[in-house]
Specification:
Layout: E1 2-7, E2 10-12, E3 18-26, E4 33-39, E5 46-52, E6 55-58, E7 66-71, E8 76-81, E9 90-97, E10 113-114, E11 118-122
Parallel strand pairs: 2-11
Antiparallel strand pairs: 1-3, 3-8, 4-5, 4-9, 5-6, 7-8, 9-10, 9-11
């Protein structure tokens, strides 16, 4: 069993930055994937970024603005979000997929464990 706990959300102005963190506890797999998803009100859950086997993957909407970093020694994954836009406002979830392959990284149904989420609001 894996437990995930996010932190770092909040209110930020457009163009600003935030850093989200996720700490994993329990039986984690260093070779598995860790990812961030988000969900805005009335919208479907959306893939944001994933880290697997030393490689980072991003959705088109955040590539170049967001950066995912994983520290296996601390069982953490962070999401540095720069140049934030109002459309980035959502609840952000950390997720773990011990057996994900690259083709399934952006698909939430393959992730076994989820955090409770942290709210990010981008507004002036």
């Amino acid at each position: 069993q894996v437990q995930l706990q996010e932190s770092g959300g909040g209110l930020v102005q457009p163009g600003g930055s935030l850093r989200l963190s996720c700490v994993a506890s329990g039986s984690t797999s260093r070779n598995g994937a860790m990812a961030w998803f988000r969900q805005a009100p009335t919208k479907d859950r959306e893939f944001v970024a994933a880290h697997r086997m030393g490689n980072a993957y991003y959705s088109d909407s955040v590539r170049g603005r967001f950066s995912i970093v994983r520290d296996n020694s601390k069982n953490t994954v962070s999401l540095q979000m720069n140049s934030l836009k109002p459309e980035d406002s959502a609840v952000y979830y950390c997720a773990s997929c011990p057996r994900c392959i690259v083709s399934s990284l952006s698909r939430g149904q393959y992730y076994d464990y989820w955090g409770q989420g942290t709210q990010v609001t981008v507004s002036s």
